[in-house]
Amino acid sequence: MVGDSSTSSTSSAGGASRPLRPARAPARSKLRNGTWIIPGTGERTRRQFTLRYPHLDGPGDDDGIRPLSEGDTVKEKVQNALHNTRVAAQRLWAWSNSPKGRGTIKCSIAYLLASMGTFWHPAASFLGPMDGKHIVATISVYFHPARSAGSQIEAVVIAVIAVCYAMFIGTLSMATSVLFGSMLDMVEFSYALVLLIFIGGGLGFVGWVKQKLNNPLVSVGASIASIGIITIVTKENSVHTGVFTNQKIIQSLKILLMATTISTLVNLLIWPVSARLALRKSMRNASTSLGDMLSMIASAFLSGAEEDLSSSTFTKASSTYSSNLSQMNKNARESKYEYYFLGQEQVYREDKAVVKSMEKLAQSIGGLRSAANTQFELLKEVSNGPLTANSTASPTTNVFSPIFGRSLSATLKSGSNRFNALGAIDEAPNERSDQEDEPTPLRQSPTAMPSPSSSSLKTPSDIFELFIARLGPSMKSLVHTMAEMLKEPPFGNPGEPVKINEQFKQSLGDAISLYNLARGNALEELYKTIELGRNRPETVQADFEEVAAACGHFSFSLLSFADEMQIYLDTLDNLRDIIEQKKRTWKWLMVWRHIKLPSRNKSEDPEQLTLIKPVKRMRQSKLPQGIPDTMKNRRGTVGWDIAPQGEGFWDHVVRATSRSLLKFFRFLARDDIRFGLKVGIGATLYAMFAFIPQTRPIYAHWRGEWGLLSFMIVCSMTVGASNATASARFTGTIMGAAFVLINWWISDGNAIALAILGWAVAFGAFYIMVDRGNAAFGRFILLSYNVSSLYAYSLTQRVDDDDDDEGGVNPVIATIAFHRVVAVSAGIVWGLIICRLIWPMPARQKFKEGLAVLYLQMGLIWKRGPLAILLRNDTAATSYMKMGEQAAMQRYATQLQTLRVAANNEYELSGPFPSEAYGRIMASTQRALDAFHAMSLVTQKHGRLSAGEKALLYYTAEERAQLCSRICHVFQVLASSVMLEYPLTDAVPSVMVVRDKLLGKIFRFRKEQVVRSGGDEGGSAEGAVAGDGNNKTPSTPTSNGNTSTGDSTTTTTTTTAAATTTTRKLGDVTVEEPDYALLYAYALVTGQLAKELKVVEKEVENLFGRLDEDALLLQ
């Protein structure tokens, strides 16, 4: 029935209807085509296809710019020049029609219109007689229109909140000045209140919000709020003179109205961009990338070519998906505002569900790649020289020793008898495709292809090739079916129905059924072939079994991906149903429904300690906090916990007061609180010169308000981020001042010329921001240009400002630009001083703390026991990882990369940050996370345990517990070394030793059964399933209601010539060969995890050194 597990031409029971096609040997054979399901029609076919995607390589761009020196004659040089002109024009036209090119043009147009608030007299009159009209252009720079409509909605909301907050602080500061300065005649006291509350507290709160939300638009809004607060409180005379005036407040509201209106109109009228449309487009791209990656991983596994996974083609597909994933998440967040504004909340939720489903598909791709890498590593180790089937082990070799060999007995090498490297199994280019028209026999034997005898399988590589020969066609067919589905994403434009092919789900179900049947037959034949070769040495037999288990692990991982594909298709159905309903609701306006009262958390089990809080979804923009609060609190109260409880009243008062004060100071010690206090303290110290009578003229002359604003911009959470911002701010200011001098000299103060030249500067700056992705640098260029050029022109219009020191109506442009550069430089230096001296937060330290906490969390999760949980929860399939933990650790690792980049900008006397070494550590950590996910899939999708699997798990319970504890221990050792920067010792416990004990226990189990099977049938033997030493294993109920304990069981083995699978009976418990697959899959994943831990250990040793027994530490 299944063409995947049999040849296309078979012999019928009554006689040969067609001659048998000569069977190919499994080694280095061409891979047959199997029956595959056409996704769109559900038709079964054997049509020729390939998993390779040459389109990913792409043609090279040979038609590029030609050097003029290539031409030998003048005519050829002219032809090259014309060719280069044509190519440059084509590229310019293509760029102008690209999203980045259109965004740059839109931003420059918006800036030109916003500058009319200064250059166009009617607009300037609308804003009033006061200066500061250049803030319109400043807001248009901060909230530029090169964004989607959803992001524009968010930007307008943030801008309104920022300006309103600034007006609120300004109003309260003027009221305070009037009350205490004018009415109560307490001028100095009013200045102190204004400084402490409205400068320190107001700007400190702005800094806290910027750090807490860690959103680029929120950071921009914080800068706008800072401009308003600083201008009203420190620059205007209302607060200093104790006079309440609303002129500046009204002007600020008009500025906000004009800037947001210009930006929004340009955004919506000129090449509008919809986040919903961009989301659907990124979904389509991500779906196609997933299909390409799936095909290439399967093709690499089938061909045995590990280099395919490191090729430029696979790297390109992987990087394409990674960029699509980040863009998809960004579009999903921005589309939320569009959907909510249009009343399509439910559509957004289903879109978000589809995005999450695609992320799970990507995680399954990672697990599939991890399984393929595991197989490649096994075959690579085997090819390095374990014993062959014809060689014998030394009589003194204890094959059950804990150190009898690595995962494939790689330590028992034989120089003369080495396994041959695995030969590639290529796809057959000339496979017949006309067989899909031939009648298919009603029944086909699953073993129609002749099976090689056990004696012909001399190496574990032969086992792999036998597995590929049996399951390869079916595996290739399933992969092709799913890849074709992923290459046909049903996502249309927003508002259009989701066009899902109704046949997809049925086709996928049929393809999975075919694959399951072929998989079962292939594994059965594989284990039967291994079982027939029991005359091999034990170490070689172990190699055979592990390679077989690795094959089963990959086939299972592929099946898990298929299950996720079914969930993905169900999610698409839900999205289609919601869109077809066309129901609109605005429930988000019911704010009271979103208010949740805090609830007291219950005490958690220490074994289930969660350091990263993964169950509650961690915000993607949130930076790692480092050491969790639970550990800090425990560390701070341990003294009171162990101190004897006093009975006196004074003892109770001291204890309670100390705990309360400690809790309060712990609150102040939080990173976000300390950052807000740091910003407030720095702003207060800087702004006090505006309130001291002797220093206020200096503050006003050198335009200290722009220095204070630079301080607010430079202050960042980490020292590295502050250094990077300071460098961009200073360079951008210098360049902006240079453009001011050049443009003013060219235009001589003419409004039209200044507007055109300003548009040119804005075009270049927005090119840096939008096209090159360096938003901060381009923004600082324009801000410096605004506060000099536009401000200077506004002076010529006789605005109300104390500007005589800069030329008045005849502005001295060089003086104006110089004052701005000095003020900005002073603010930058002050910001760096504050960030370095007051509670410095080095990014490298936060990175190390975060990496250590991630390792601690991974160790605690693995300590739960990936297989032990199957015994504790036998009623339903479950995973050792709680819901959300995998995604939380993945986001945590991603944010650690952000900190690693920021640490590159920190300059320490101890030397630069070793970014490359930590990059390799993070790469190994990512592969370890993939192994975690692969093991989670094994346990979650496994289902109920069979009786034989239970017996094996109980028998190896002690070794598995030791292995989990050892892995947790190594994670903790690495975490301690990374956090403290201490060298490792040369006695770091080895994971592989304990893993070898587990393998030895499994082999001993097999050995004992083989020995007992040679005795009298029905005889009793003790210790068949027993643990060693003091291992107390739980009792397991048998099928007849009796109890089988781990102390003694009766073992009988019945062997018949007609048996399709050799089984062993332990009392009433039957252990079959497939029962070993789960335990071997666990051993394979732990082997990969041990390898990555060894890589991290080596990198840590290179960073901090290693201590041996001769090290002298006491000095």
What share of the residues does DSSP label as strand, in percent? under 5%
Calculate the terminal CA-CA distance, rounded to whole Å: 78 Å
Given as residue ranges, the uncertain stretches (5+ residues, pLDDT < 50) are 1-31, 56-62, 385-450, 601-609, 613-621, 1015-1065
Please estimate the helix content.
55-70%
Question: From the alpha-carbon coordinates, what is the Rg to the nearest angstrom?
Answer: 36 Å
Shape: globular
**What does the average pLDDT come to?**
76
With strands numbered from the N-terminus, the spatial order across the biggest sheet is: 8-9-10
Largest sheet: 3 strands, antiparallel
Which structural class is indicated by helix and strand composition?
A: mainly alpha
Question: Could you give the count of β-strands?
Answer: 11
Q: What count of helical segments does DSSP give?
A: 32
Summary keywords:
disordered N terminus; mainly alpha; globular; 1115 residues; 3-stranded antiparallel β-sheet
Tell me the layout of helices and strands.
Blueprint: E1 36-37, E2 44-45, H1 74-96, H2 99-119, H3 121-127, H4 135-142, H5 149-183, H6 187-213, H7 216-235, H8 238-241, H9 247-269, H10 275-303, H11 312-342, H12 345-382, H13 460-486, H14 503-532, H15 538-581, H16 629-642, H17 649-668, H18 671-687, H19 696-701, H20 704-714, H21 719-747, H22 751-771, H23 775-795, H24 813-837, H25 843-863, H26 868-872, H27 885-903, H28 915-941, H29 947-955, H30 957-980, E3 984-985, H31 991-1013, E4 1021-1022, E5 1036-1037, E6 1043-1044, E7 1048-1049, E8 1051-1052, E9 1063-1066, E10 1069-1072, H32 1076-1104, E11 1106-1107
Parallel strand pairs: 3-11
Antiparallel strand pairs: 1-2, 4-7, 5-6, 8-9, 9-10
Helix pairs in contact: 2-3, 2-4, 2-9, 2-22, 4-9, 4-23, 5-6, 5-7, 5-9, 5-11, 6-7, 6-18, 7-20, 10-11, 10-12, 10-13, 11-12, 12-15, 12-28, 13-14, 13-15, 14-15, 15-28, 15-32, 16-17, 18-20, 18-24, 20-24, 21-22, 21-23, 21-24, 22-23, 23-24, 25-27, 25-30, 27-28, 28-32, 30-31, 30-32, 31-32
